[in-house]
Design goal:
Shape: elongated
Largest sheet: 9 strands, mixed
Distance between the termini: 22 Å
Radius of gyration: 20 Å
CATH class of the largest domain: Alpha Beta
CATH topology of the largest domain: Alpha-Beta Plaits
Number of helices: 7
Order of helices and strands: HHEEEEEHEEHEHEEEEHEEEH
Length: 238
């Protein structure tokens, strides 16, 4: 098995993150540091990361979290902010869970946590083009021409975003807030907020409600649950 896949199967992180461990010289095989990403691992090899032996996880954990605002989507934070792992730590103190993709500090909603690095790699890889569906609230109203520009793709930092689906679902004249459901698939940093900024709109609230056909159900804000067997199979077959 290729070394990055092996490390992902050990529940360390996604394959791409595991590749960083390798190129940074943190991985040893049978006592020898390896930095070649093409290294193959057999069942008899002893693999260590940072001096600690690792082995493939026999039974992976899959969690659905309703991420709240005010926490970061990382395993740890050098600024001391609350992380999504802090929310699950009491129930999984010794489990190497990590988030599948990211939600911004001020964005809430559906987030998958797992020990399955291979699954993480498949879902987050740009070639997967899996839709992520959000509910966005913006200041003021938005015209059909502005929505058409959002759907067609806008220019952000010299790059044009891909086509997406977007529809206005509500407008509250008392607060002057428009609610929009938008589905994107590129995974650019702060993508939804920056898309609306490109047409002169400010997002005041953002929540992810679905990844593909997997919708957030039965999870209160700031809590989590295990995925059902059917939900897990759906993710594995994406």
């Amino acid at each position: 098995m290729r070394i990055n896949k092996y490390l992902a199967e050990c529940g360390l992180a996604s394959r791409r993150k595991c590749e960083e461990f390798i190129t940074d010289g943190k991985v040893s095989v049978n006592g020898t540091v390896v930095t070649d990403l093409a290294t193959q691992i057999s069942a008899s090899d002893v693999v260590t990361v940072g001096g600690k032996r690792v082995s493939p996880v026999t039974k992976h954990v899959y969690l659905m979290m309703n991420k709240p605002k005010g926490c970061v989507t990382t395993v740890s934070d050098d600024r001391g902010r609350k992380t999504v792992i802090d929310i699950v730590r009491a129930d999984f103190p010794d489990t190497r869970l990590f988030p599948v993709g990211r939600l911004d500090y001020d964005t809430e909603g559906l987030l998958i946590l797992t020990t399955d690095g291979d699954l993480c790699n498949r879902i987050t890889h740009p070639s997967s083009e899996i839709e992520k569906i959000y509910v966005a609230k913006i200041e003021g109203q938005i015209s059909e021409s502005e929505l058409a520009a959002v759907r067609k793709g806008v220019t952000i930092g010299g790059r044009t975003t891909g086509r997406c689906r977007a529809k206005r679902t509500a407008y509250d004249p008392k607060t002057d807030i428009t609610t929009i459901e938008i589905a994107v698939h590129e995974g650019m940093n702060r993508e939804v907020r920056r898309i609306f900024e490109a047409v002169g709109k400010t997002v005041t609230f953002l929540k992810r409600i679905a990844i593909g056909d997997l919708r957030m159900r039965g999870v209160d804000r700031g809590s989590y649950r295990r995925l059902t067997k059917e939900e897990t199979e759906y993710l594995k077959n994406m």
